[in-house]
Design goal:
This protein has nine helices and three strands. It is mainly α and about 230 residues long. It folds into two domains: about 110 residues, no CATH class; about 100 residues, Iron/manganese superoxide dismutase, C-terminal domain (minor pseudopilin epsh fold), CATH 3.55.40.20. α3 packs antiparallel against α4. The N terminus is likely disordered. The structure holds fe (ii) ion. The site of fe (ii) ion (FE2) has 7 residues, from α3.
Length: about 230
Amino acid sequence: MPSRREFMKAAGLGGAALAGGAVPAAAGQGEAGPPAYAARDFSRLVGTAGFSETLLKNHFALYQGYVANTNRLLESLAEMGRAGKLAAPEAAELRRRLGWEWNGMRLHELYFGNLGGTKALDPAGKLGRALARSFGSVDAWTKDFKAVGTMRGIGWAGLVEDGAGGRLFNIWANEHDGGHFAGAVPILILDVFEHAYLVDYGLKKADYVEAFFKAVDWAAAEARLE
Ligand SMILES: [Fe+2]
């Protein structure tokens, strides 16, 4: 049975793509399909305290790779659909891969989107009050979120809001696609892949998480609350 890498090669997804590296933007998904995703520009974050320009620019390039690969997968699946090949195992593998790449794309947008702030979280604001309702206090939530953020492994720490009832949870998403709460709205997203901090912090993940907390755009996170 062909390996996943062989499936990717057959679909035109090369080694750089598998590593999440920057690749040229893909074309659209066919004349009748929706337009391809476009990478968002987060260059405004250069200069954020605690995040070097080198680290951020490498991270932007990785993010752009997820956007390009999401487009390529969608295009490959559309082509396989037009060719009547969606029942093939190659299509199933591409479908599985799509969740990984798509979440890699969107989680980076949420992460960069909640970075670049300079003000502290207001405990009396909408988000602060919501945190207190779900966790007892902002301090209790902060302690819990930091514990998630410093877990061993690669993935994402996230504060999410249950779409049914509004309770807030801190979650761990393994890699990009494991552990999400169905229907929950991402409020605050923290990238804890090593590429997110190694250049600036070495193995000191806890120091990176502290720097992240100082750089959160709390207004952006609060605006995501339903
Ligand atoms: Fe990342």
